[in-house]
Predict the 3D structure of the following.
Amino acid sequence: MDLLAGKTGVVFGVANKRSIAWAITRAVTDAGARVALTYQGERLEKNVRELAATLKDPLILPCDVTKDEDIDAVYDEIGRQFDKLDFVIHSVAFANSSDLEGKFVDTPREGFRLALDISAYSLVAVTRGAVRLLKDGGSVVTMTYLGSERAVPGYNVMGVAKAALESSVRYLAADLGEQQIRVNAISAGPVNTLAARGISGFMKMYAEFRDAAPMKRNVDVMEVAGTALFLCSDHARGITGEIIHVDCGYHIMGF
Ligand SMILES: NC(=O)c1ccc[n+]([C@@H]2O[C@H](COP(=O)([O-])OP(=O)(O)OC[C@H]3O[C@@H](n4cnc5c(N)ncnc54)[C@H](O)[C@@H]3O)[C@@H](O)[C@H]2O)c1
């Protein structure tokens, strides 16, 4: 199934083999796309290079999304190597672990600023940088979670950041629609990754989710990746500004 044959993309957010970004990378490359992967700092470079060794002609670039110069360098290099882009995967989030436990009301100003900068503003920055390369239009996909819509214990400031991220999806979609650049988010059910394990009570949330979801199971990361593949493909060419829940139906339940 070569849904993305001849297409090129960039994926922000691979840390290790459990990362949602890595599952998406596998889905889009299996569908024929060529990708650039970015890694956050030297600590993660080895992981990402090892994973990327299984891909055909990947481009591997450093990028700390808090640094505009890193983002500019990524797109300059992609411009040189790929000439154009068709999709951008943004699968990046961070908050201090001390702000993902206890009460939201205690969130310090700096922790709030940091979480919103890395987890929400970065979507605006990486989308803006990509526009000049999304010459034939394209698809931007980001990752969100239900904690944006509901108060999920322990999710705290990340819930506020995800609300800002989802609103940014709509504003970006409104700005860029005329250029046929689509911007959407996937609201995934809990997946056991590095970032998820930073949330206090995650394993309890994971187990309770399975019991409460209509489908009585947790979401499989490749189901999330499959939705990202769909959103990057021409099958989704009429969809923008949308938040698609991939959560075995969990969000529809009252309790
Ligand atoms: N795991 C879940 O249950 C779940 C559910 C819904 C949404 N999400 C979202 O999916 C996305 C990916 O998370 P994941 O669960 O795959 O965990 P992960 O830890 O594998 O990925 C998070 C990524 O963010 C990157 N990152 C953090 N700060 C950065 C910075 N300053 N510059 C560049 N990159 C930075 C990390 O390097 C890492 O690659 C996040 O937005 C997360 O909120 C996760």
Summary: The helical segments are 20-30, 42-52, 68-82, 109-130, 156-176, 194-197, 202-212, 221-232.
